[in-house]
Amino acid sequence: MPNLTDLKTIRTLCERHGFALSKGFGQNFIVNPGICPKMVEAAGIDRSFGVLEIGPGIGVLTKEAALRAARVVAVEVDERLPPLLAETLAEFDNVKIILGDVLKTDLAGLIRREFAGLRVAVVANLPYYITSPILMKLLEERLPIESITAMVQKEAADRICAAPGSRDAGAISLAVRYYAEPKVLFTVSPGSFTPPPKVTSAVIQLRLRPAPPVTPGDEARMFAVIRAAFSQRRKTAVNAISAGLGLPKAQVSAAVEALGKGPLVRPEQLTLEDFCALGDLL
C-alpha cells in the first residue's frame, strides 16, 4: 500500500501519470498522515455505511474510508485523476470512482444505485471555491444521508457553524441549521498540505436533522427573507429586507416589531425562529 501522504510518493505518482495540480480545481494534497484517519473516525464509519466522497484527489481519504466502510463512491471532476486513483486504490474492491461534476450529478439516484441497504455518510475534503454550493445541494435535496464530515476553509467553517445571533451568523449558517446540527471538529494548518494553502482549514460535521426545527408556512419565502436580510449586512434588518424584497419599509418594520424587535435590529441578531415568523408575517 503506497504512503499517499509522503511527498516523494506523491511526486512519483504525479510524474508517472503526467499529473500537475490544478489551481482551477483548488487542488491541495494532504501530507499530514493523521488528518484523514481522524476525519473518518469522527464520522463514525463502519461496515454498515456507504460513504459518498467528493473530490478524492489521489485517494488519501478514500483509502481510510474504504478500510472502514462497506462501500465508498467518490465523485471526481478532474478527468486526469481516475487513472491515478486506479493505481492508488487498486487493492480495494469496495471503491468506485465516478467522473463528473457533483453539482450536476443526480445524487439521489447515485445513492439509490450504489448504497442500497446501507446507511450513508458524506466524508470529503471539499474544494474551497465551491464549498457552500456543494453543502447546500447535499442539504436542500434532502438526501438520505446521516452526516456530512468535511474539510473546508476555516473562515467558511466559522460562518457555516456560527450560532444564531452571533456576529458570524449569516444566510449560510441559518440555512445549514434548518437542515442539520453543525459543529467545528478541529482545525488543520496550511503545512498539512502540498502545496500549502494560504489559509487555515477546519473539519466540520453536520448531523442531519430528522425534521427542521421550525415549520414555515412557505419555506421558499423564509429563505428569500433570509437572503434579503444578509445581502446588505451594513443595513438594519428592516432596510435590508425592504430593499431586497421590494416591500414597503413600513410593512417590514411592522413585521419586525411584531416579533418584539426594535427598528434598528441587525440581521445577525435574528434567529431562525425569527426569520420563520417574518416569512409568515410578510
From TrEMBL:
It catalyses: adenosine(1518)/adenosine(1519) in 16S rRNA + 4 S-adenosyl-L-methionine = N(6)-dimethyladenosine(1518)/N(6)-dimethyladenosine(1519) in 16S rRNA + 4 S-adenosyl-L-homocysteine + 4 H(+). Its EC number is 2.1.1.182. Transmembrane segments: none annotated. The keyword RNA-binding applies. Keywords: Cytoplasm, Methyltransferase, RNA-binding, rRNA processing, S-adenosyl-L-methionine, Transferase. Residues 35-210 form the Ribosomal RNA adenine methylase transferase N-terminal domain. SUPFAM superfamilies: S-adenosyl-L-methionine-dependent methyltransferases (SSF53335). GO terms for molecular function: 16S rRNA (adenine(1518)-N(6)/adenine(1519)-N(6))-dimethyltransferase activity; RNA binding. SMART domains: rADc (SM00650). Pfam families: RrnaAD. Its main location: cytoplasm. GO terms for cellular component: cytosol. S-adenosyl-L-methionine binds at N28, I30, G55, E76, D101, N125. InterPro entries: KsgA/Erm, rRNA_Ade_diMease-like_C, rRNA_Ade_Mease_Trfase_CS, rRNA_Ade_methylase_Trfase_N, rRNA_adenine_dimethylase, SAM-dependent_MTases_sf. Belongs to the class I-like SAM-binding methyltransferase superfamily. rRNA adenine N(6)-methyltransferase family. RsmA subfamily. Specifically dimethylates two adjacent adenosines (A1518 and A1519) in the loop of a conserved hairpin near the 3'-end of 16S rRNA in the 30S particle. May play a critical role in biogenesis of 30S subunits. This is Ribosomal RNA small subunit methyltransferase A. It comes from Anaerofilum hominis. The lineage of its organism: Bacteria, Bacillati, Bacillota, Clostridia, Eubacteriales. The gene is rsmA.
